[in-house]
Design a protein that fits this description.
The complex is a heterodimer of chains A (628) and B (301). Chain A has 628 residues and is of the alpha/beta class. Chain A is built from 15 helices and 27 strands. Chain B is built from nine helices and ten strands. Classes of the chains: A alpha/beta (628), B alpha/beta (301).
């Protein structure tokens, strides 16, 4: 039978009825066996309880049963004809954060329980925040013990409003609310007759129907190489690993990182040698390439035009797990990512987060058990990664203390971009990197776009420094004006003297630079002018954001890739920048110490063989249909 | 995005297990796979074979032989090893009894005694990672077990000092003399195992399928008539159509009445059964509520 797998984590305070709810789900979905039930009944009797105490289903250890508490995350399973469920049952007790992080790290969905009498508590907020931090896409707020508030719709609505208000601060894609009684089974598997005002499905049906497939990253192709398979007596090696993102197909051009060598995929094999036409995120595969290039564990395969970041400096949110040591700036650990392993130094503890108030405590100088904070790390070898919010598999890591071999922290890389860290107060808006201000509305102009004197658009020239973008842009502007078309050149360097003079060259500032240029270009385009942008804009994602900004306003956007080989750019070196970058004077220089992601969908690609800037400007006008 | 970019639950479980098995082969020096000939270890072995295809298994197999196995299981074990051209090591409980390292009590199963032989085999061969076929759905103490389970120099498990396991980042770092137990089937259930056996055509000992045999009834369980089960006068033999849900020692593993003769029929039966496999057929697990937890603390797998 074809079912898929839903992983869920449970959360809630002690006594909110979490264990009972899980027991009820297992019991009502007929996933409990009669000898298990017998055991529960015996244990319930021994404790002097009346009927079988379903919460006993989940507490498996001697100390847990003796003390009536849950010590550690346990995993439970049940299956319906639609789905197989893996429940990470996380205890609500003292060690809350660590356990919640453990359970939520692999969860698609989190069930957060609230006692209807008590309403939204600190613990509710904390667990919702942790779920959002860990990128759990779906939250279900289960308002439990509704029988104890007389099935009051008003009480349910109060709780719903209070929580929904809090949730606007979080990065939660899908939020549902359910009134139920775990003890009596109302709205768990069967619809309750006590809540005629509740129109949604019971919990189990919601769990069966919630759509999770789209939560995975199927855009950015990533294969962290886990193991190299070398059959005896054959030369052909294959590179095995679990696809961490995107889709690979035979024939695809791939780049092996960190070497940067490119090759093509010849064949893809599933476990045991089943041939695969398309391998996508989550599949454990091995693939062969058409060149013998040196690839080993820890390398990553990606697409030449879409590569992960490579850096020795990482910004990350981390959760501290150790109860015997603390994190401080200056400490050394081992860092483990998907398949990489390196030494790492904590260069800075930026702040500790108060998970109750979401305040940043910048004066904190250490992280202790269950603390969450933002740190800056410096690794011995460059790490290949994506921001965690783009990819859980390539954006996560653990820290190991080499003196005790303990796993002391779990981390999520934010990559110096407005991301998870900011999600707590000013949620990063994916398309633009900034959230629109809630109290600013867009004023519509009295003029329709068709009433403008001419039709505007944005021509976005991207390419390495020295590739010839500016010369082409200048010539293009001249030709367009000559032909009677309003045009204006937005040169990245020039804008840095005015509009963007407060920005540096960190990833975050470069991103903001590009965002502003894209905004300005779209205003020109909307005003009926052809905006010619000349900007290295090395990251595909940022160019995609610029395109999206135009698409959203239904403005034309044309990406022109000035594809001049690095060697030639370096030879030209019009501003002497490559020389300085090579001498180490310019850290993070595109093409040398920072990647350039080649466009995958550029409208036009220009190579030096195509002539002088004058020829190329004519070519661009012809290709884009603006020759007069 | 087309809807097809979704793995079925069996594909997802297979991928997860293969990932774990490859991870161990890539990061440990001397892994070994425990192979008893039972259905779980047969599935685990099949997953390991698939993980490294077309290369042979990069680690040996280890069987802890209590000396009370069903002949059919030993026969299956040897045929499987030969088919895969694998290396098999056998740790014999009898050797530890003969050397006086463990003492056998009359009338008691050898389940508990296995632990000493297992730990001795790990020590003598300096294994640093030991694959086991345990599943979290089998037993409540196992529900708390990590995929990478750290064992100290005595092979002991401390449930309160387990390493947090986040995403699929497994920490196998350890000092000399310590080792890691690895459970690639952690997230599988009995039903998943059978669905996979059917789909991947995993060979099993014939005892898993319905057959006629001489049995006797003891403590509400059916035991197969064999040399390890001394029969009491009040326990008459009778013939029945039975199969085994688990295969442990012949003296303490019961069978159930069943006509399921193919994986599909077993799946149909498993889907509606009201008893866990261990509850139905493992005498040892009935001893106490913490039987498994206590054995695991001593180094049992």
């Amino acid at each position: 039978m074809r079912r898929n797998l839903l992983r869920l984590a449970t959360a809630g305070s002690v006594d909110d009825g979490k264990s009972t709810l899980i027991g009820r789900l297992l019991f009502d979905s007929k996933s409990l066996f009669s000898d298990q039930l017998d055991a529960i009944e015996r244990a319930s009797l021994a404790r002097g309880n009346g009927g079988p105490d379903l919460s006993l289903v989940t507490d498996g250890l001697r100390a847990e049963r003796e003390q009536g508490i849950t010590i550690d995350v346990a995993y439970r399973y049940f299956t319906t004809p639609r789905r197989k469920f893996v429940i990470a049952d996380t205890p609500g007790h003292v060690q809350y954060t660590r356990n919640m992080v453990t359970g939520a790290s692999t969860a698609d969905l989190a069930l957060i329980l609230v006692d209807a009498r008590k309403g939204v508590s600190e613990q509710t907020r904390r667990h919702a925040f942790l779920s959002s931090l860990l990128g759990v896409g779906h939250l279900v707020l289960c308002v439990n013990k509704m029988d104890l508030v007389d099935w009051s719709e008003r009480r349910f609505e109060e709780i719903r409003e209070e929580f929904a208000d809090f949730a606007t601060k979080l990065d939660v894609g899908d939020l549902s609310f359910l009134p139920l009684s775990a003890l009596h089974g109302d709205n768990v598997v069967e619809m309750s007759t006590h809540t005629p005002w509740y129109a949604g499905p019971p919990l189990l049906r919601h769990l069966e129907e919630v759509h999770i497939a789209s939560d995975r990253n199927l855009i950015d192709a990533r294969l962290p190489v886990q193991y190299v398979i070398r059959p005896h007596g054959e030369n052909q090696r294959s590179y095995a690993g679990t696809i961490a993102g995107g889709i690979f197909k035979p024939g695809d051009e791939v780049v092996a990182l960190p070497s940067g060598r490119t090759s093509h995929v010849t064949e893809i094999w599933g476990p045991g040698g089943s041939k695969i036409e398309e391998a996508f995120a989550g599949m454990a595969v091995s693939l062969t390439l058409d060149d013998e290039i040196d690839i080993g564990r820890g390398d990553m395969l990606a697409r030449p035009g879409n590569q992960p970041h490579q850096d020795r400096d990482l910004d990350a949110m981390i959760c501290w797990f150790s109860d015997t040591s603390v994190l401080r700036a200056g400490n050394d650990y081992s860092i483990r990512t998907a398949t990489q392993n390196s030494k790492v130094k904590v260069t800075e503890l930026d702040y500790r987060l108060d998970v109750n108030t979401l305040h940043r405590q910048t004066e904190a100088d250490q992280l202790a058990l269950n603390d969450i904070g933002r740190v800056t790390l410096h690794t011995r070898q460059p790490i290949m990664f994506d921001p965690y919010r783009d990819n859980r598999a390539t954006g996560s890591f653990i820290l190991v203390d080499d003196t005790t071999n303990q796993t002391v922290a779990a981390g999520m890389i934010t990559a110096r971009t407005p991301g998870i860290a900011e999600a707590t107060s000013d949620r990063g808006h994916r398309a633009t990197g900034r959230r629109p201000r809630a109290n600013v509305v867009w004023h519509n102009s009295a003029v329709e776009r068709t009433q403008r004197l001419s039709e505007g658009m944005t021509i976005w020239l991207t390419g390495l420094s020295g590739s010839g973008k500016s010369s082409i842009a200048v010539e293009l502007e001249r030709q367009l004006i000559e032909a009677g078309r309003p045009a204006y050149l937005l040169d990245g360097d020039n804008l840095r003297h005015g509009l963007n003079n407060n920005l540096g060259f960190t990833d975050e500032d470069r991103r903001e630079n590009i965002r502003r240029v894209a905004e300005v270009a779209s205003l020109f385009a909307d005003a009926g002018t052809i905006a010619i942008v000349s900007l290295i804009s090395p990251f595909r994602e940022q160019r995609r954001d610029a395109r999206k900004l135009h698409d959203d306003k239904r403005l034309q956007f044309h990406e022109v890739f000035v594809d001049t080989p690095l060697e030639e750019c370096e030879l030209r070196d019009p501003k002497g920048l490559y020389k300085r970058a090579r001498s180490g004077e310019l850290p993070e220089f595109t093409g040398i110490s920072s990647p350039y992601e080649r466009p995958e969908y550029a409208e036009l690609t220009i190579t030096p063989e195509q002539g002088t800037p004058t020829d190329i400007a004519q070519l661009i006008r012809r290709e884009l249909g603006i020759s007069s | 995005m087309r809807a097809g970019y979704e793995l079925s639950h069996l594909d997802a479980l297979e991928a997860e297990s293969v990932h774990i098995i490859r991870e161990v082969a890539a990061t440990f020096e001397r892994p070994v796979l425990l192979f008893s000939g039972g259905k779980d270890s047969a599935v685990m072995l099949e997953l390991a074979r698939r993980a490294f295809w077309p290369a042979p298994l990069p680690f040996p197999l280890l069987h802890i032989d209590t000396g009370r196995n069903f002949d059919e299981v030993l026969d299956f074990r040897d045929r499987t090893v030969e088919r895969l051209d694998a290396q098999l090591l056998v740790g014999r409980v009898q050797d530890d009894i003969d050397a006086g390292r463990v003492t056998e009590k009359a009338g008691e199963s050898r389940n508990r005694l296995q632990t000493a032989t297992l730990l001795r085999s790990i020590r003598e061969n300096r294994f640093d990672a030991v694959f086991g076929g345990a599943r979290r759905d089998e037993e409540k103490a196992r529900a708390k077990e990590r995929v990478f389970s750290f064992r100290d120099e005595y092979g002991a498990w401390d449930p309160r000092a387990q390493r947090p396991e986040v995403w699929s980042l497994y920490n196998g770092q350890h000092s000399k003399g310590e080792h890691i137990r690895v459970f690639p089937l952690s997230n599988w259930t009995e039903l998943d195992i059978w669905e996979y056996i059917e789909r991947a055509e995993v060979a099993l000992p014939p005892l898993y399928y319905a057959h006629r045999r001489q049995v006797l009834e003891r403590d509400g369980m059916l035991l197969a008539d064999n040399k390890f089960v001394p029969r009491k006068p009040e326990e008459p033999l009778f013939e029945a159509t039975v199969r085994f849900r688990t295969l442990g020692d012949a003296d303490c593993t019961g069978c159930v009445e069943s006509t399921a003769a193919t994986p599909a029929e077993v799946i149909a039966e498993t889907a509606v059964t009201r008893l866990t496999e261990r509850g139905a057929t493992r005498a040892d697990d009935r001893i106490s509520e913490s039987g498994m937890e206590d054995r695991k603390r001593e180094g049992y797998f």
